[in-house]
Amino acid sequence: MSDDATPDELIAEVVENIGKKLPRQTQKGRLNNHRVYLAGPIDHVADDGVGWRQNITPYLKKMGLMILDPTDKPTSQCKWNEVGEEKANIQKLVNLERWDELRNLAKEIVLVDLRMVEVADFMICYVDKDVHLCGTYDELFEALRRRKPTLIVHKGGKKEMSMWLRGKVNHNFVFETFDECYEYLQALHDGVVEPDYTRWVFFDKV
Description:
With 206 residues, this protein is α/β, with parallel strands linked by helices.
């Protein structure tokens, strides 16, 4: 560029050169070897939150994803998955008012689940406003604080979101059904849609 170039022309040249050095990743298989955490209610749902997680897992694995599921924790460090017979045993401790034991048990669960949120590359979170959510919101906001891609499947869709959630979440990451969420992920994986690079990071080498 000539010496008499304007500041705007100089800036444009610099931006263009940076863009050439940092090409966007457009090839297929973007999500391969990524880790996804499946957040959603466990305590106050009939199937302990197992159903939707088991349904979506085979589709996610087809994309080469590692599943981090709090109802089937991939670690022997935590003895509790909070489902089935374990959930019944927890309720027995509640009925016996064994508060110290319950606190120690809960701390173990919280530690492992939040650690999974920490190491996940992104999150899929199921929100049902008619179900009391505690850990789910904690995990959701932790993922947002860490600027992780956080995909929400919200019962009733965007119209049923709370105002607080609207202020915290990009509405383009909110879906009404798991099928819609999966279609987005598949398109992202195949390089059909451009990622939101304020959230998604794809490493060339790990």
